[in-house]
From TrEMBL:
This is IclR family transcriptional regulator. Residues 68-213 form the IclR-ED domain. SMART domains: HTH_ICLR (SM00346). It comes from the Bacteria. InterPro entries: ArsR-like_HTH, GAF-like_dom_sf, HTH_MetabolicPath_Reg, Tscrpt_reg_IclR_C, Tscrpt_reg_IclR_N, WH-like_DNA-bd_sf, WH_DNA-bd_sf. Residues 6-67 form the HTH iclR-type domain. Pfam families: HTH_IclR, IclR_C. Keywords: DNA-binding, Transcription, Transcription regulation.
Length: 213
């Protein structure tokens, strides 16, 4: 630190870097230890960063990078969407269902990229910007399953009628992408999701994760 720098800002940036380097978030105690400051300082830093959506805390109290970080660079969000589109397009055409990339935004799941199939007579209308609680729908539940199994592969999640009557969903979490918590999935008008769809969604999630690394 020099006379021209801000200690508080420096600590805040260090918090963001520490959180960006972990897939599972950090507790206040862990941040306090890594920064070498007391917990009160960490609480203040997190509260300030949360106000700007740069940090979010999950239900367990672990701090994670917030989607506000994407807003710091106007081109970041389009780049994330662009990176995911080839895998989503292939998934939508292969399955014949609407494919989507969903990211965590606070306590909600936010669809940031959506691709509809071109050859089907009908499909579920699902738009980028659609939000829903993390504990409803395949996209959010897939993310929660990854949180519950941080050291293992949670596979895929299936749901029916949770977000739209008559619609079923399948989703798999993004794994191994630092600072990004999300899932890739499909939504279709069906009473049940065929088994091969779950496997194909897992494959697409891996492709998107590779594109974002």
């Amino acid at each position: 630190m020099t006379a021209e720098t801000s200690q508080t800002l420096d600590r805040g940036l260090r918090v963001l870097k520490l959180l960006a380097d972990t897939d599972h978030g950090l507790t206040v105690t862990e941040l306090s230890t890594k920064l070498g400051v007391n917990r009160t300082v960490v609480y203040r830093l997190l509260a300030t960063l949360e106000q700007h959506a740069l940090v979010r805390r999950d239900l367990g109290g672990r701090a994670r990078v917030g989607l506000g970080v994407l807003g710091l660079g106007r081109q970041v969000h389009p780049l994330v969407r662009e990176a995911a589109l080839p895998a989503l397009r292939s998934l939508a055409e292969d399955i014949g269902a609407t494919a989507h990339l969903t990211l965590v935004d606070g306590a909600e799941a936010l669809a940031v990229a959506v691709v509809e199939p071109t050859w089907t007579d009908y499909h579920v209308a699902y738009r980028a910007g659609f939000r829903h609680p993390l504990d409803r729908g395949a996209a959010g539940k897939a993310i929660l399953s990854a949180r519950a199994r941080p050291s293992g592969d949670p596979g895929y999640t299936l749901t029916h009628g949770e977000l739209e009557a008559g619609a079923s969903g399948a989703a798999a979490p993004l794994l191994g992408v630092t600072g990004v918590e999300g899932s890739v999935g499909v939504v279709m008008l069906a009473d049940a999701v065929p088994e091969r769809v779950g496997t194909r969604v897992v494959e697409a999630a891996r492709e998107v994760a590779e594109a974002l690394r």
